Amino acid sequence: MVLGRIFTKIKQGLTKTRNVFSGVLDLFTSNRRVDKAFLTQLEEQLYLADVGVQATAQIVDRVRQGFLDREVGEDVKLFVRQQLREMLIDPSAGIHHVETGPTVVMIAGVNGSGKTTSIAKLANRLKLDGKKVLVAACDTFRAAAVEQLTVWCDRIGVDIVKQQQGSDPAAVAHDACERAKARGYDILIVDTAGRLHTQTHLMRELEKIHRVVGKQIPGAPHEVFLVLDGTNGQNAIAQAEQFTKTVKCTGIILTKLDGTAKGGAVFAIKQKVGLPVKYIGVGEQMDDLEPFDPDSFVAALFEK
């Protein structure tokens, strides 16, 4: 069992998802045979838990093969739990910090995904870790976006680079890079306009910011996090695919898991898009953004 405050928060945040996932757990009894009927029911329950077609097929195939190879004994539950955990493990956990100069983290996502509050929570977490953080308010298209981010930055005590609404987002990014280098910031978080993945002109603007940052700071952006609304479930995959094509996303911040039964989409996103979940939002408080830990996540699903 995974213990501690963080696990408790994750478990509470995943209550709705766990209630759906209980249908999977109800299949596991000490005398249940791994036969065709069991595998069919397992497949159905994983679909209901929003695990997705590809991930579900992989789990069912592994259970079937594991039984044939005598890897699966009486404890089918333990075997399935291990398969789910292995699906989510990724060597690039957290933020990759560069050795010299500021580490640039670019944030993308659609309006309403929780992007602004996720930036504030991430900045707050990094500050508490002892990092000197600068935020670039490049979401200059949406009314009040810069003001909202300014309020958050003032509240948590981190600096922000901004211009008036309607300004060139790439120009804001350029100025932020210059300040980050000149004043020795450890982390530069670059906000971008919340846009639909189908809005071609705005996606081009995202590419432009990506290029400008790379010219100012070699290797930047070092991380590109896509903020996805956990309540969207499988629908988030299309967003992840398009954003990744445009700006080479390196990871996902999955928000609003405390208000959805679709947390199983974590498996689908990882299998379909190949992007690791870096952080998860499990509440509305400033400290409710947690680094994603496969052990804690899967354990939370399996504990009633």
From TrEMBL:
One of its GO terms (cellular component) is plasma membrane. Residues 276-289 form the SRP54-type proteins GTP-binding domain. It holds the Pfam family SRP54. Its EC number is 3.6.5.4. It comes from the Bacteria. NCBIfam families: ftsY (TIGR00064). The lineage of its organism: Bacteria, Pseudomonadati, Planctomycetota, Planctomycetia, Gemmatales. This is Signal recognition particle receptor FtsY. The keyword Oxidoreductase does not apply. InterPro entries: AAA+_ATPase, P-loop_NTPase, Signal_recog_particl_SRP54_hlx, SR_rcpt_FtsY, SRP/SRP_N, SRP54_GTPase_dom, SRP54_N_sf. GTP binds at residues 109-116, 191-195, 255-258. It is found in: Cell membrane; Cytoplasm. GO terms for molecular function: GTP binding; GTPase activity; signal recognition particle binding. GO terms for biological process: SRP-dependent cotranslational protein targeting to membrane.
